[in-house]
Amino acid sequence: MTESALPVFDMHPYLWGNPQTPGELPAAAGELLSALGAVAPPAAVDIADAVLPASTLPAAALDALVAAVGADHVRFDHDARVRHTGGFSTPDLIKLRTGDGSAAPDAVVFPADHDEVLAVLAACSVHHVAVVPFSGGTSVVGGLTAARGGFTGVIALDPRRLDRLVSLDEVSRTAVLQPGLRGVRAEALLDERGYTLGHFPQSYEAATIGGYAAARSAGQSSAGYGRFDEMVETLTLATPRGTLTLGTAPKSGAGPDLRQLVLGSEGAFGVITSVTVRVHPKPVSRIFEGWRFEDFAAGSAAMRALVQDGPLPTVVRLSDEAETSVNLADPTAAGSAGTGGCLMITGYEGTPAQTAVLRAGATELLLAHGAESLGEGPGEKWRTGRYRGPYLRDQLLDVGGLVETLETATYWSNIERLKAAVTEALQASLGANGNQSLVLCHISHVYAAGASLYFTVLTTADPDPVAQWGAAKAAANAAIRSCGATISHHHGVGTDHRDTYAEEIGPLGVGILRAVKAELDPEGIMNPGVLVAPGLVA
Amino acid sequence: MTESALPVFDMHPYLWGNPQTPGELPAAAGELLSALGAVAPPAAVDIADAVLPASTLPAAALDALVAAVGADHVRFDHDARVRHTGGFSTPDLIKLRTGDGSAAPDAVVFPADHDEVLAVLAACSVHHVAVVPFSGGTSVVGGLTAARGGFTGVIALDPRRLDRLVSLDEVSRTAVLQPGLRGVRAEALLDERGYTLGHFPQSYEAATIGGYAAARSAGQSSAGYGRFDEMVETLTLATPRGTLTLGTAPKSGAGPDLRQLVLGSEGAFGVITSVTVRVHPKPVSRIFEGWRFEDFAAGSAAMRALVQDGPLPTVVRLSDEAETSVNLADPTAAGSAGTGGCLMITGYEGTPAQTAVLRAGATELLLAHGAESLGEGPGEKWRTGRYRGPYLRDQLLDVGGLVETLETATYWSNIERLKAAVTEALQASLGANGNQSLVLCHISHVYAAGASLYFTVLTTADPDPVAQWGAAKAAANAAIRSCGATISHHHGVGTDHRDTYAEEIGPLGVGILRAVKAELDPEGIMNPGVLVAPGLVA
Q1: Do B448 and A229 touch (CB under 8 A)?
Q2: Most exposed: A24, A509, B62, B239, by fewest CB within 10 Å?
């Protein structure tokens, strides 16, 4: 099944993915966890039974919201509120699984267009209501939980009614997309016209165009199609102070590139209401294949050669020895023995002539770097299973596992040091309480000067798994900072990374963000606590 | 001669380029101008006779500057001041040619390192002295003339003592460069180690690394090596409030990309004191060749196919019919008849295998788009003559010509409309006084979604050529804005484009820049009047 043919569905607030195709824990993965000594926790609380705080919105604020979007598009019911509670970090999930809905918004507002978004933000500014832009709801960094302090209430602003492919420019190869459009739906609409966006993050089944832009999403085909922030040509931001429209040419020498200030702003400056993105003729040829490298160093040297000297495949992904050994690149077989060594996946998309040239050049380079071809089998398994990985987390949590991911990026000369430092920090923290852990790693985004590192951690849950993970995560963050790497390659800042991010950009960097926020959002209502500490503005 | 072997020289303040190899006006170009009815103006005033204002710096400010950098590195003499007066826009040149040195700084300060830059900025903040970062001095948009209002004086900060290749990371393929390093010198230093930066703007003989970064320079090989703003991995900015260090990975999902806020800030936020840039193994194979297209539409369609479908050459440049007809791509023959139709230059650099693959693919595509091969002759003429074009301007001014360039960029579907609108606006404005004009255009930077348009205008000078050009430029700016294009693809904002730029980014965009400037430069001393209107900060 191609990406554009996947179904669109409403995701459960603490169970990942399509409810029609729930995850199935491979026996081997369950056995692996049992061997680590996991003990199943109490069953997860049904969301209908989650405890939400009373809605505190003042009547005047409600009236203003109703005036902005119409009574039919302001919801206060339990179901709407619980479905806009938190994101998909493991701590967020654990909280909601125990029935703790304290992070629920007081109301959910569904504006129909840019002007209604402006009206909502104006109303919330006047009435001191915090606004959490909430679309796909897939944040894994606490990006969807407003700091309530000082506000009369919190609303979730769900842009799902802004869900159109507005226009397609086949000469410039750009499309104007609305923010509430789900990635799957955007692909389907573009596919009808013969195009693809080429953006396939792990959250593809649920995430939206606005979320991709606000959080600097990176898709699994980033080598071929670029990151989402690289695809955006123009954008419109609705702010409490009005409309900011940016982008007049692919590249400009006229001042700073302010588009890059809005991309990654995570709802803290306003709501992205439109983006113009580059699109590509849909590929008619797709080839995915697997390779085995002796070790991670050999595989990453080959990846570096692919990106520095070319040709660069559309997809390139390298699992380290640990990830390869538990077969994580094939979720249907996770936990069973992998190929040994390190598994690399390469993918080529385009016209038959394009993929032939790419594949021939890349094959020559990989073989010269000592790769052993595993054929198309592992490539297809990865391709068809690539959105299934996160489903396993829910089943692992059910049986007493603690699973979480984190990621970073650095320059090539620093990759080995960073990988070792993060791995050691995680294992030391988790081991301090006597828990055994598996720390798996892969590279899935490469650049001429460096690459991302993506870690998957599996261990047994302590009685307080949120605190347990908090300590491990803090240790990993410290290791990342001590290596001079970035606190996130594509998960974002949210609230979870905020303090480490402040160290990364320094006091003047934080000052810039505060100054921009004060300019666009003088009342500080936009996603307070995300990106920069709350209470610093207004 | 390759780029790394070019000499480093001090440029005259109103004569372009290497004083050892002054421009020679091709006879045909002179005849062309005579045919337009040019009348030679008075001879240019020797810079020793230029009239500079008395230096107004208060003694306390001088003492502080001397304390910051040492007495040997603060200069007040006529020569130092006049050599830091204005840039290379035609209005800047005309002013200085008439002996008007009113834009001269009161002093020129030469800090040795980052800490000395910080000390200079701190001293100037305390004493309310405006600071113009001045390195190559090649701004063509009034980027080097501080608004004096409210300040006790103006200094030029010349970073020429920060001129080192600090380090080279051969694994990540990055180099740490200081801002005062001239482009030519950077290439020579990298060449010794087997690398190239690949950045060759028209100002290459004079411009510096810091200027490239501060002004979002785009080089003639941008198709292959990218723009300068795309090459920068990390940077350090000295501001009046301290040091901002940005860049922890090639790409990050941690918040906005603040590097892109500093790139293009044109000295208004601080002084860039270090950049880490990507470098490339120096090419062993270089092939440049010429092509003839029936018309501009056919040529630009071929360019678009090269960048959208590939393979993209390292250099690609298309002259329109008018530019082709006066042979502007070969400055030694400018004014004589060109090839007819539209001339395209393509260049391929890399290993022999890389250039062979690129050239074969591009050749097939170009032939399919109706190109006629002109062989390597026109390609080599362009390559070897490519820095000589601006030399001709001085000779044309001598004989009563008025020559200036301007540039913009837009999306592919808007290219023809923009080109026609700017051409018509220029010709209408210049024709209103009865002057005949030539408006020539080329595309020299291409992107998947759009391209730049670079215009060269030649006409006869009125008695007040600054006012004459001012009117023409205003008409062109209005045409650019009415087409929704950017006011500059790579020349920048400076003071000349400031008002049009404000329209381009809107009041909230200007508000963001003001807020950032107020945060980093609360006294508003940094290049006041550049980028945003003066007096809006502090």
Answers
A1: no
A2: A24
Cα–Cα distance for residue pair A199/A187, rounded to 1 Å: 9
Give residues with Cβ within 8 angstroms of A71, minimum separation 6.
Answer: none
Q: H or E stretch including B129?
A: strand B129-133
Instruction: Please answer yes or no on whether A254 and B515 come within 8 Å at the CB atom.
Output: no
Contact A485 B248 (CB under 8 A): yes
Q: In what order do the strands lie in the sheet with B107-109?
A: B74-75, B107-109, B153-157, B129-133
Contact partners, residue A296, CB within 8 Å, separation at least 6: A318, A320, A321, A342, A419, A441
Interface test with A, best of B279, B512, B517, B527 (most A CBs within 10 A): B512
Question: In which residue are the tokens 């680590």 written?
Answer: A36
The residue in chain B having the minimum alpha-carbon distance to the alpha carbon of residue A493 is: B254
- Taking CA–CA distances from A217, the nearest residue in chain B reads B253
| Interface A:B, Cβ pairs < 8 A | 271
Q: Which residue of A has its CA nearest to B487?
A: A254
Contact A261 B265 (CB under 8 A): no
Cβ-defined contact of B260 to A255 (cutoff 8 Å): no
Tell me the C-alpha distance between A400 and A172, whole Å. Answer: 52
d(CA A200, CA A218): 8
Do residues A484 and A499 make contact, with C-beta atoms less than 8 angstroms apart? no
On whether any CB of chain A is under 8 Å from the CB of B239, the answer is yes
Q: Does the beta-carbon distance from B250 to A449 stay under 8 Å? A: yes
A491 touching B (Cβ < 8 Å): yes
Task: Indicate yes or no: CB of A504 within 8 angstroms of CB of B254.
Answer: yes
Name the residue in chain A with its Cα closest to that of B483.
A248
Tell me whether B1 touches chain A (CB under 8 Å). Answer: no
Structure tokens at A107: 């109301």
User: Which residues of B are less than 8 Å from A501 in CB distance?
Assistant: 254-255
User: Do B253 and A215 count as a contact with CB atoms less than 8 A apart?
Assistant: yes
Q: How far apart are CA B72 and CA B90, in angstroms?
A: 33
Which chain A residue is nearest to residue B412, measuring alpha carbons? Answer: A172
3-class SS of residue A344: strand
Q: How many CA atoms lie within 13 A of A185 on its CB side?
A: 20
Question: What residues of chain B lie within 8 A of the CB of A173, using their CB?
Answer: 308, 412, 448-449
Strands A129-133 and A153-157: parallel
For the four alpha carbons of B5, B7, B8 and B14, in that order, the dihedral sign comes to negative
Q: What is the pLDDT along chain A (538 residues), one digit of tens a residue?
A: 678 888 888 899 999 999 999 888 888 888 888 888 899 999 999 999 999 999 989 999 999 999 999 999 999 999 999 999 999 999 999 999 999 999 999 999 999 999 999 999 999 999 999 999 999 999 999 999 989 989 999 999 999 999 999 999 999 999 999 999 999 999 999 999 999 999 999 999 999 999 999 999 999 999 999 999 999 999 999 999 999 999 999 999 999 999 999 999 999 999 999 999 999 999 999 999 999 999 999 999 999 999 999 999 999 999 999 999 988 777 777 777 777 899 999 999 999 999 999 999 999 999 999 999 999 999 999 999 899 889 999 999 999 999 999 999 999 999 999 999 999 999 999 999 888 999 999 999 999 999 999 999 999 999 999 999 999 999 999 999 999 999 999 999 999 999 999 999 999 999 999 999 999 999 999 999 999 998 644 4
CA B341, CA A434: separation in Å to the nearest integer?
77
Is the model's pTM score more than 0.90?
yes
User: CB-CB: which of B218, B260, B497 is closest to A257?
Assistant: B260
One-letter amino acid at B84 equals: H
The candidate with the shortest Cα–Cα distance to B40, out of B465, B469, B467, is B465
> In A33-187, at which residue ranges do the beta strands (DSSP E only) sit?
74-75, 107-109, 129-133, 153-157, 165-169, 174-177
Alpha-carbon gap, residue B299 to A520, rounded angstroms: 43
